[in-house]
Amino acid sequence: MELPLERLFYSLPAMKAKVLVAMFIAACASQFSPITNGAETKPNFLFFLVDDLGWADLGCYGSEFYETPNIDSLAAKGMKFTSGYAACPVCSPTRASILTGRHPVRVDITDWLPGMPMNRARNPKLVSVRDRDNLALDETTIAEVLNENGYQTFFAGKWHLGEKGHWPKDQGFDINIGGCAKGSPPGGYYSPWSNPNLKQKKEGEYLTERLTEESIEFLDSRSTDRPFLLYLSYYNVHTPITPYKKRIDHFRDKASQQFTDPTPYKREHNAKSRLRQDNPAYASMIAAVDDSVGKILNKLDDLGLSDNTMVFFFSDNGGLCTTRRGGPTSNLPLRSGKGWLYEGGVREPLIIRAPGITEPGRICNEPVVSMDFFPTILELAGLPQMSDLHTDGVSLVSKLEGRASTKRRTLYWHYPHYHGSTWRPGASIRDGDWKLIEFYDPETVELYNLADDPGESRDLSEVNPEKAQELLDKLHAWQKSMHAKMPKPNPDYTANNESKL
Fold first, then answer.
1. Computed from CA positions of residues 7, 13, 14, 20, in that sequence, does the dihedral angle turn out positive or negative?
2. CA gap 284, 361 in Å, rounded
C-alpha cells in the first residue's frame, strides 16, 4: 500500500524530511545550473582528514623537521588557510561538525566517544557533561545529500562516531573501509588488525598504505557516469605513535644530525608542552600521510580527474603537544595542543584546491571553521544551501574566489569535559582578533589579542577587564541560546582528596 506523499513526509525523522525538500529544490535548480547538468560537469570531491595533525606539522606551515612535499604542492596549487579551526580540541565533535555543518553543542557530541571516564575515585571538582555516544541517525550528513543527488560516496579510515548501527553506511556512504567506533586504530597500525570493517590482505601491511590502496581501487572501479565523494580519514597520526618502517631510518638520521641537546619542554598548567619538533617516529607517520596524498593525487592526474575534483585537506584537532609528560609534537608558535582551547588545540592546517575557482597559491587569513565544509561543498556542487541543516556553517566559495568578507565573524568552542592532556572543563570565544578562554576548574578567565600575540603568552584580562567582560557575556549568551550543557559541582569533592587527572 502506498502512503500519500504528505503522510510519507511526516513519517520521517525531522532532519531527514528536510533533506527531501532540499532534494526537490535541487532537482528543479539543476535544470538551470550548468554545473549539475550531467556527470561530466558535476565536480568530484576528495576530502583528506588527518587525525591529530598539528597546525605547524607541515612544511607549508613552517615545519623544518617534518617533510610533506606532496601536501606542500597541494597548497601551492590551491588556497592555504592560516586561521582554519576545528569545532573542538578533540576528534569526535569536530568529525560530526564536518559531516553535518552543525556545532558540536547542537548535535550533542562535545567530547570524544565514549569520553574520559571520570568516576568518583578521581574526585574531580566538577561532574562532566553527559553527551550522546553516537551521531544521531536523524542528523543529515553531507554524504547523504550528495548521495541523494547522484554521487557515489566512499569512506575509508577512522569514523569514531558511534557503535554498529551508526557507522558510515548508516550515514550516507555507499562504501565503508575501516570505519568503526574506535578512535585509535583497532589492533594497531600493522596487520593483523582487530577492525570489524578491515581485514588484512597480506601479513604486516601498514594501515595508511592499505587505506590508500582501497581509495585508489575505488577511483579505478567507480561508475564513470556518476560524480563521487572520496572521504579518506586517516588514523595517522593518532597514538600509539608507531614508526612507519619505510621512512623511520631517514628521520632518525635527521634527528641525530640536527639535535644534540634533549627535547625542551615548558610548563602548561598541570602538564608540560613540547617545544620542538624532533620525534622521528611521529615524523615518519606524517611522511606516510604525505606519501598517501601524493599517490591519490597522482591517480587523479592519471584518470584525467584533477581539473574536476575539489580537494580538501584538514585535521580534526591540534597536534598532541601538552600532556603530563609532554606530547610527541610541538605546535609553536601556537600554544599547547590537542585537548586544550588554546590556539594549538583548535587551529588546524586547512588547504582547499578548487580548480577553476581558486587562483593557485592564494592565502586566506580570515577565520573559518569545520562547520563550513558542508555548505561549501553544496555550493561547489551547484546545489542549493540548506541553512536549516548547516545552520552553524557558511560557504567558503567567496573566499576561494578571492573575495574578502566584510562581516566580522564570532566563533565559539564549548568543551565542558576533563581530558587526558590534563585540560579541565571550559569554553572559549574568538571575536575578531580577541580571544577569551573561560576555565571552570578553577574558575578564571584569560584574554588574548591574537593579532599581537598569536601564541597567547600575554593574558590581558586584568589590564582590559571591560573587553574580558564583553566577551564573557557574549559567550554566556551564546551558550544559553544553544542550550549548552554545563558541568555540575561534584557533591563529594573536597580539595584535599582530589587525585590527579
1. negative
2. 26
Q: How far apart are CA 229 and CA 147, in angstroms?
A: 9
What are the b/e assignments for 245-283, b being 16+ CB within 10 Å? eebbeebeebbeeeeeeeeebbebeebbbbebbbbbbbb
Q: Is residue 207 classed as helix, strand or coil in its secondary structure?
A: helix
- Picking from 288, 318, 266, the residue whose alpha carbon sits closest to that of residue 57 is 318
Question: How confident is the model over 35-94, as pLDDT tens digits?
Answer: 443 445 899 999 999 999 999 999 999 999 999 999 999 999 999 999 999 999 999 999
CA atoms of 208 and 244, how far apart (whole Å)? 9
Report CA torsion sign: 210, 215, 219, 223: positive
Helix (H) or strand (E) holding 345: helix 343-346
Under a CB-based contact definition with an 8 Å cutoff, are residues 274 and 326 in contact? yes
What does the angle CA 494 – CA 498 – CA 500 come to, to the nearest 5 degrees? 165
Spatial distance between the Cα atoms of 114 and 119, rounded to a whole number of angstroms: 14
Query: Using CA atoms, how far apart are residues 75 and 169, in angstroms rounded to an integer?
Result: 31
Cα dihedral 380→384→385→387 (10° resolution):
-160
pLDDT value, residue 254: 98
**Domain range list for the chain:** 5-409
Q: Which CATH architecture has domain 5-409?
A: 3-Layer(aba) Sandwich (3.40)
Return the exposure string of 443-453: e unless at least 16 CB atoms fall within 10 Å of the residue's CB, then b: eebbbbbbeeb
Spatial distance between the Cα atoms of 475 and 285, rounded to a whole number of angstroms: 37
Q: What angle do CA 451, 455, 457 make, to 5 degrees?
A: 100
Model pTM greater than 0.85?
Answer: yes
Cα 266 from Cα 141, distance rounded (Å): 41
**Rounded alpha-carbon distances, angstroms, from residue 273 to 337, 350, 417:** 8, 23, 20
